[in-house]
Write a structure and sequence with these properties.
heterodimer, A: 325 residues, Rossmann fold, seven-stranded parallel sheet, five-stranded parallel sheet, elongated, B: 256 residues, alpha/beta, 6 helices, globular, binds flavin-adenine dinucleotide, binds adenosine monophosphate
């Protein structure tokens, strides 16, 4: 079976990024995964064990201090080295800033074509293909590469592969030329935002818009999200107004979500917002303007004042929870 | 300081955007505009010029003949000149080919900084700027929420998956900016008038040494299908019972 190289990303906290397991799972579908980790010397034992639990049968560790001091340089050098040793059919990375830079630089360095923003991958009779969601889910396309090794970024999230017994590990020392890389002078981990589900994989997403009117009022949407065990989303207008951090933005230039239920509160439903949520199974909206475009795509629309409806909804949900329904 | 801004013309996100049956951007189906994020990239450059008149800004695009409209707009906003990389052979170019064409156009022009958007609204690939940096052999800083130029270097706040990083690199460098970059200014009447006299250099594949492009070797679309449009369902006007009706709906649908 052919090898599939997976770029391993390490979070600011030093742990594996949450996308790692899903990447390994997709790689398992395409061939034999080789997890590639660039890390400073002596820091990788725990990460290698975790990669095994996430289903990596082989881990290639390239030890270099640049892994944490410079952007992408260590990862790209490690991936390029792994490509020489493991002759993969494809290289997979997440669509994070790190993943995109690694894949972009690697493709340019090695002259291989890219398959970007895959929501699914397939190996059809030896040809690796990717599925993409285009224009906010208006189209679904399949693509492949004409020749060469497929350099992919993955936009979906999901479950890890079954755990591998104990991964085969190869560790090398890598001399990385970082003169053409940006130096990291400080790292700030985003305050871990409660135990709300992450947006891309949440079953329910509750989003608030400009209609909330203020950061204080936005708490109404946060409470509703928490009562429903939902991910917290927002429109760009709500983000721009500072009600909620940018990482919550749903839409064209934000996150794409596809939950079982999307509940939009005080959101008009501009085309760019719809581009990030119109593939939800069920859409519910609360908006006082009966002509708001969001109602063109809702399964259940409520025309009314969110400031009266949300508190009622909140107490009804609490009563329901109390009654153990 | 000499700054190149990578401007991309895209189908207007306000329009009904379409793909052709072959799965390519249908340029005829919707209004074409300069991608908003690339206008913010230009605004980032213009603010340098506001502070220091000696800053020179070149707006660069790879795109069909119609992309001159996007370049004219950039000139009317304040760019000094433009570079249009246009050739029939570029039609259907994938990200790597696009980056090669752009890098080829930028080579030898002695730019201190190249500013791009973090991702385009038509493709959302978000890899072209890093590719251009790799091909030029210079640092890449992106996606940046903010950027500052201090003499021979650039610093900025990079948005990563789980926080931010402070970065620094020597110039020349390529940077990309996020939506946190300032909103673009509107062209003024005087700008629109002077834009007509500003130079636009037009380069084709041969002059860029890119005549051997083989798009079939790159990323190829194999199939494309349109999702059926959503239709509106039930809509109620709140008469005091909306909350309980919603809960009834959600539980009937097994959503709660
Ligand atoms: C290139 C580009 C990319 C973009 N990307 C995105 C993106 O990723 N995500 C995104 O969301 N937007 C995006 N936008 C912006 C988008 O066009 C809209 O401006 C934005 O979605 C509007 O947000 P909103 O619905 O919260 O605000 P508004 O359009 O102002 O709507 C607020 C709504 O709240 C309702 N309301 C007010 N008070 C109440 C009340 N008391 N009770 C009930 N309802 C009330 C109003 O009736 C109104 O419909 C993008 C735009 C461009 C040009
Ligand atoms: N054809 C192009 N012409 C000029 N700039 C481009 C082109 N394609 C991409 N870019 C630049 O690269 C950024 C990211 O695009 P992408 O990698 O396609 O998502 C854009 O915001 C532009 O600044």
């Amino acid at each position: 079976m052919s090898n599939i190289v997976v770029n391993v990303e390490v979070a600011a906290t030093g742990a594996l990024r949450s996308t790692t397991g899903h990447l390994l799972q997709l790689a398992t579908r395409l061939g034999e995964p080789v997890a590639v980790l660039a890390a400073p010397a002596g820091t990788s034992d725990e990460l290698v064990a975790q990669l095994g639990k996430l289903g990596a049968p082989t881990v290639f560790v390239a030890e270099t201090p640049t892994a944490t001091s410079h952007v992408a340089a260590g990862a790209v050098a490690a991936l390029a080295e792994a490509m020489k040793r493991y002759a993969p059919r494809a290289v997979l990375a997440s669509n994070s800033a790190d993943g995109r830079e690694a894949i972009g630089r690697l493709a340019a360095r090695t002259g291989n074509p890219v398959l970007l923003e895959a929501i699914d991958v397939k190996n059809v009779e030896g040809r690796i293909t990717a599925t993409h969601s285009v224009y906010g889910g208006t189209y679904t396309t399949e693509s492949g590469v004409g020749s060469g090794i497929a350099m992919m970024t993955v936009a979906s999230s999901g479950e890890p592969a079954p755990a591998a017994a104990a991964p085969q590990v190869e560790v090398i020392q890598l001399d990385v030329d970082a003169h053409a890389a940006a130096t990291i002078t400080a790292t700030h981990a985003a305050p871990s935002s409660s135990d709300r589900p992450e947006l891309p994989s949440a079953k329910i997403v509750v989003s608030g818009g400009r209609g909330l009117g203020s950061k204080e009022n936005f708490a109404l949407v946060e409470q509703l999200a928490d009562s429903l065990g939902a991910g917290l989303g927002a429109s760009r207008a709500a983000v721009d107004a500072g009600y909620v951090p940018q990482s919550h933005q749903v839409g064209q230039t934000g996150i794409s979500v596809s939950p079982d239920l999307y509940l939009a509160v005080g959101i008009s439903g501009a085309i760019q917002h719809r581009a990030g949520m119109q593939t939800a199974k069920r859409i519910v909206a609360i908006n006082e303007d009966e002509d708001a475009p969001i109602f063109d795509i809702t399964d259940f629309g409520i025309v009314g004042d969110l400031f009266t409806i949300l508190p009622q909804l909140q107490s009804a949900l609490e009563a329901r929870a109390g009654a153990g329904v | 300081m000499k700054i190149a801004v990578l401007i991309k013309q895209v189908p207007d996100t306000w329009d009904d955007r379409k793909l052709t049956s072959g799965g390519c951007v249908d340029r005829a189906a919707s209004e074409r505009v300069a991608d908003e994020i690339t206008e913010r990239a230009l605004e980032t450059a213009l603010r340098q010029k506001d502070a220091d008149k000696s800053v020179e800004i070149v707006a660069v695009t790879m795109g069909p003949g119609s992309a001159t409209e996007a370049l004219r707009k950039a000139l009317s906003m304040g760019a000094d000149s433009a570079m249009h990389l246009v050739d029939d052979g570029f039609a259907g170019a994938d990200a790597l080919t696009t980056a090669r064409v752009l890098a080829s156009g930028l080579t030898g022009a002695d730019f201190d900084v190249v500013i791009a958007g973090n991702e385009s609204t038509d493709g959302r690939g978000g890899v072209v700027p890093a590719m251009v940096a790799e091909l030029l052999g210079v640092p890449f800083l992106g996606p940046l929420n903010s950027a500052h130029f201090t003499g021979a270097s650039v610093t900025g706040e990079r948005q990563s998956a789980d926080g931010t990083q402070a970065l620094v690199a020597q110039l020349p460098a390529v940077i990309s900016v996020t939506e946190r970059a300032p909103e673009a200014r509107f062209p003024k009447f005087k700008g629109i008038m002077t834009a007509k006299r500003k130079p636009v250099a037009v380069c084709d594949a041969a002059s860029l040494r890119m005549a051997d492009i083989r798009n079939a070797d790159g990323n190829v679309v194999l199939a494309s299908r349109k999702r059926p449009a959503r239709t509106a369902g039930r809509k109620i006007v709140d008469d005091g019972n909306a909350a309980s009706q919603l809960i009834a709906y959600l539980s009937a649908e097994n959503l709660i």
